[in-house]
UniProtKB/TrEMBL annotation:
Residues 330-342 have a biased composition (Low complexity). Keywords: Carbohydrate metabolism, Glycosidase, Hydrolase, Metal-binding, Polysaccharide degradation, Signal. Residues 234-254, 330-352, 367-388 are annotated as: Disordered. This is Alpha-amylase. One of its GO terms (biological process) is polysaccharide catabolic process. One of its GO terms (molecular function) is metal ion binding. Residues 1-34 form the signal peptide. It comes from Streptomyces phyllanthi. Its cofactor is Ca(2+). Residues 246-337 form the Fibronectin type-III domain. CDD domains: AmyAc_bac_CMD_like_2, FN3.
Length: 984
């Protein structure tokens, strides 16, 4: 399943064995020296020090040193002197060098440890070669080879080669000369041969032999870089010629208006070095000409004048500032201003301050029964018998219960996708159909999506919108491509295919008059093949029968392999290997049509859609199925587009705090998902570290192969989550991609809090900044260990998990209802095969009946009815106090952590320092702990109010008990909140 690096094979015909870049191999057999005598020829580089004379002062291993200053060395070749010494039976020698007048090079006081054979010492680096051998002078063919060590970290390089038909050089070969940063050069005479076999090494047993195949290099000038040989190559060390070539003119510029907004998109321009941005020029209206810089190939222009024609042209710009000519103009005329309220503004604060409450909007609280819809599976699923339509909760219900969520102590709400969905069972929101339109089944008069965002912000609460970039519904994406299936209203199928109503537009809510259904499908089928049909055997019977015994036809149902979807917009395969490249370029499921996200028009469609929700003021995006899009596509297209849009609309500070967290579903306990870096959550927190093809589809394959070959041991690491001793340090986010992650490894291990703690710590050095990890026990998909049921570990275990989540690094997150162990042990999801009421996605509103008002986060001002009973439950009390404590101690929100000098189970120290804030906390969950080497001073426990004065750098904590904890804060406020069932 993995591209494993091979081990060494036996030597053959003098060629280099199949060792890899990083595996040492046994050097080939040298001609044997006399049994009782060994020698070493030591070459010393003279150019750096420019001494007038050179002496070698040495002692054979186990023998005596020469008399100071040692033996004079002789000239060898330009910039080198040498001396051959007899070592007797010794296997090496200790050595220093001097100029005969008291100036020494003794390797910084450590002396040089040298072996036998040819040895070079250059600028403190010891290697094994003859730098004076084969200068390249001769009358035969020459090969000039440049070798890159940029990704290897070698400090010297040797060239081991054999001309075609000739013999190999003696190992380790000839020394190469430094050419420029990261590059080494050697010119060799290969006689009448026109090519050579070659391998490279660092002189100390580490080889690159092209994975055992050796390199074939032609005469002339060649480069070898990351195992790729380029013949007739340019000198990589030559000065770059100035880039004076402008990009091509952007083509295919399109503009479309909706109300007083215009979406402009265009095809990517090409350039000899790469396009870095586009300049979009708008003319029209009373405000004159405007020019904006855009890094993607789509621009959403909002807040325009009504009933006004606007014209747009686009120029492409490269890194050198070369600018193309303007494109042909595209025009669009605006309509009337929308009736929805003005755009909101994101709160724009550090997301680590905000614990997250995750709701499935359609299942949380029903504020408006008129928008409830059961869908085509209402009866079959058993929902009808429970009077429980799948679309039941809505924005109105969520607005009405924001105070409940605030009373729990949460200041951020993650909601399921809001775009118009279309499938047989789409209450969860992951079957997007019209990405530019909010699903009408969620909205009400006075409770639009904008109203929800505004209402949350008014209470100091954030809205995180679940977004899907990877796939649409099986019926495609309106405005991009929607497939037409074969259908016929005959005696067998008229019950299924609704009669066409040309004036009706599906919105999920409106009942179509002919069919009497809101899940109308009359716009999806045709008896005649649609224009441009690519589905083979359209309408021809397959020979099979449906469950009812009805005739089945080709092209009757969307699928990736039917040819029903255009290759430009959708992928054409099923996933076969979930840790293979196809996991990023094939369909997940039959009702999730997989976007070709490397296509510019698909990118434009999605960027334009999500710009709309950014403009409404959402505070962040939870990214669904992030792992099924190549990281290079995220880093090139979608993540920069998000940052660019937030910056343009709300400023740089809002953009820094716009919280994007991705679902990279790795359901294993490994640090790296079955050894695949490309499918591991932490991988997505990093920028790319090399350039790939300008074509996104090619780049995706290049990036997958490159990172897969590097493997888990060659990934970037970070100290951003860790204290340095007791000190907080400024995190380095220069290599951050823009995407944070759900902590899948902790999630998988939360059947036991101690396991979650240990596994979380183990992964943190490979995450760009784990203090931003989103941490939860279970969700709408899975429980710990990929359990298909909602967490049922018991109240004490829940309390312990919460105590850890609310004090350890990361952002604590709770799936709706877990505060009362809602639906514990029930299957989380079974689709339409069982009633929702029997699953983890059951309707929660019955527990919220009555009224509630929050006076602050974690504090109830008043409550009556069933919601008052809900708020009195033990885990609710536990959550409220945890949230109060976390909000009062900055170290618990944004602090780095360490377990250094700490004994105990789930015990750690955290610190956050910024401006006038310096917060230092010692945390012990469940078990006793001892902290040593900590700052002296007065520590107060936020749970009990206990005060401990530290004068010897040590503090001990007795075991608080399961679910309980201690939070000793240096110069802290003391006890926060009142004792509850666990925190006491």
């Amino acid at each position: 399943m993995r591209h494993r690096r091979s081990l060494a094979r036996p030597w053959a015909a003098g060629a280099l064995a199949a060792a890899t870049l990083v595996l040492p191999v046994t050097a080939p057999t040298q001609p044997a020296a006399a049994a009782d005598s060994a020698s070493a020829t030591v070459f010393y580089y003279t150019k750096t020090k420019n001494w007038s004379d050179h002496y070698l002062h040495y002692a054979p291993d186990g023998g005596s040193w020469t008399t100071v200053p040692g033996r004079r060395m002789e000239a060898a070749c330009t910039d080198w002197v040498k001396l051959t010494v007899d070592l007797g039976s010794a296997a090496g020698l200790q050595a220093t060098f001097n100029n005969g007048n008291g100036v020494w090079d003794n390797n910084g006081g450590r002396n040089y440890a040298l072996g036998t054979g040819n040895i070079t010492v250059k600028d403190g680096v010891v290697a094994h070669s003859d730098p004076c051998a084969d200068t390249g002078e001769g009358s035969g063919n020459e090969a000039t080879v440049y070798y890159s060590t940029q990704t290897l970290g070698w400090t010297t390089a040797n060239f081991h080669y054999a001309p075609a038909g000739g013999s190999w050089t003696a190992v380790p070969g000839v020394g190469m000369e430094a050419a420029c940063a990261g590059w080494w050069k050697k010119t060799v005479d290969i006689g009448s041969a026109t090519s050579l076999k070659a391998a490279f090494n660092n002189g100390n047993g580490v080889w690159d032999n092209n994975n055992g195949a050796d390199y074939t290099i032609a005469s002339g000038t060649s480069t070898v870089h990351d195992r790729t040989v380029t013949a007739n190559a340019k000198d990589p060390c030559a000065a770059e010629e100035p880039d004076t070539e402008a990009p091509s003119v952007p083509a295919g510029v399109r503009a479309s208006a909706t109300n007083t907004s215009v979406v402009v998109s265009w095809d990517a321009a090409t350039d000899n070095t790469g396009v870095t941005k586009y300049q979009v020029t708008r003319t029209g209206g009373t405000k004159g000409t405007t020019v904006v810089d855009v890094t993607s190939t789509v621009w959403s222009d909002t807040g325009l004048e009504e009933d006004t024609a606007y014209s747009y042209t686009v120029k492409a710009v490269d890194a050198a500032g070369n600018t193309s000519a303007a494109s042909a103009a595209a025009t669009a005329t605006t309509g009337k201003k929308p009736a929805t309220p003005a755009s909101g503004t994101p709160l724009g604060t550090d997301p680590r301050k905000d614990p997250i409450y995750f709701v499935m909007t359609a299942r949380f609280h029903d504020g408006d029964t008129s928008n409830n819809r059961g869908g085509s599976q209402h009866t079959k699923s058993g929902n009808a018998a429970n009077n429980d339509p799948m679309f039941r909760g809505d924005f109105k219900g969520l607005v009405e219960r924001l105070d409940y969520i605030k009373a729990l102590g949460f200041s951020a709400v993650w909601i399921t996708p809001v775009v118009l969905n279309r499938s047989d069972y789409d209450h969860h929101g992951y079957h997007g159909y019209d990405f530019y339109k909010v699903d009408a089944r969620l909205e009400s008069t006075g409770a639009s999506y904008q109203d929800l965002i505004n209402a949350a912000h008014a209470k100091g609460m954030k809205i995180y919108q679940d977004v899907v970039y990877n796939h649409s519904s099986r019926w495609g994406a309106k405005g991009l491509f929607t497939p037409t299936v074969y259908g016929v209203r005959d005696s067998q199928w008229s019950w299924y295919y609704d009669e066409k109503n040309e004036g009706f537009e599906y919105d999920g809510l409106t009942v179509e008059t002919k069919s009497g259904k809101s899940y109308y499908n009359g716009d999806l089928w045709s008896t005649a093949a649609p224009t441009g049909n690519t589905c083979l055997n359209w309408g021809v019977p397959t020979g099979g029968k449906s469950a009812e015994g009805y005739t089945l036809y080709n092209c009757q149902w969307p699928s990736p392999t039917s040819g029903m979807f255009p290759k430009a917009y959708y992928h054409q395969c099923w996933i076969g290997n979930w840790e293979g490249e196809d996991a990023r370029s094939c369909w997940l499921h039959e009702d999730l049509a997989d976007f070709n996200t490397e296509n510019t028009q698909v990118q434009n469609y999605l960027i334009g859609a999500y710009d709309k929700y950014i403009d409404m003021g959402v505070d962040g995006f939870r990214v669904d199925t992030a792992v099924h899009i190549p990281r290079v596509t995220w880093n090139r297209r979608f993540l920069p587009a998000i940052q660019e849009r937030v910056t343009q609309r709300f400023g740089a500070e809002a953009a820094r705090n716009f919280f994007v967290f991705g679902e990279v579903a790795a359901f294993v306990n490994d640090k790296w998902n079955r050894g695949s870096v490309n499918h591991s959550a932490q991988f997505y927190t990093w920028k790319e570290r090399k350039e790939y093809s300008a074509d996104d589809e090619t780049a995706a394959i290049e990036q997958f192969t490159y990172e897969n070959n590097l493997g888990t041991g060659n990934q970037p690491t970070s100290t951003n989550a860790f204290l340095e001793g007791n000190a907080y340090h400024t995190p380095d986010h220069s290599k951050f991609s823009g995407m944070n992650i759900i902590d899948m490894r902790m999630h998988m291990n939360f059947s036991d809090a101690q396991n979650a703690f240990g596994n979380g710590k183990d992964s943190d050095d490979s995450v760009n900044d784990a203090t931003y990890n989103v941490v939860y026990v279970d969700s709408h998909d899975y429980g710990p260990n990929k359990s298909s049921t909602r967490y049922s570990g018991g109240t004490d275990a829940w309390a312990e998990n919460m105590s850890l989540m609310w004090t350890f690094r990361g952002i604590p997150t709770l799936y709706y209802g877990s505060e009362i162990e809602f639906q514990k042990g029930q299957r989380i999801d079974c689709g339409p095969t069982c009633p929702l009421a029997t699953t983890g996605r059951a309707y929660y509103g019955d527990h919220l009946a009555g009224s509630v008002t929050a006076s602050d986060f974690g504090t109830v001002a008043s409550a009556n009815g069933q919601v008052a009973t809900t708020l009195a439950q033990p885990l609710v009390k536990h959550l409220q106090r945890l949230n109060q404590i976390r909000r009062a101690v900055p170290a618990l929100q944004m602090g780095q952590y360490s377990t250094e000098g700490i004994s105990g189970g789930m015990a750690f120290k955290r610190r956050y320092t910024s401006g006038g804030t310096d917060s230092f906390a010692l945390v012990a969950v469940t078990d006793a702990a001892t902290y040593s080497g900590i700052p002296n001073g007065t520590y107060r426990d936020a749970v009990t109010g206990d005060v401990k004065t530290v004068s010897n750098g040590s503090l001990s904590v007795a075991a608080p008990g399961k679910g309980n904890l201690r939070v000793y804060v240096l110069d802290g406020p003391g006890k926060i909140g009142t004792d509850g069932p666990y925190l006491k």
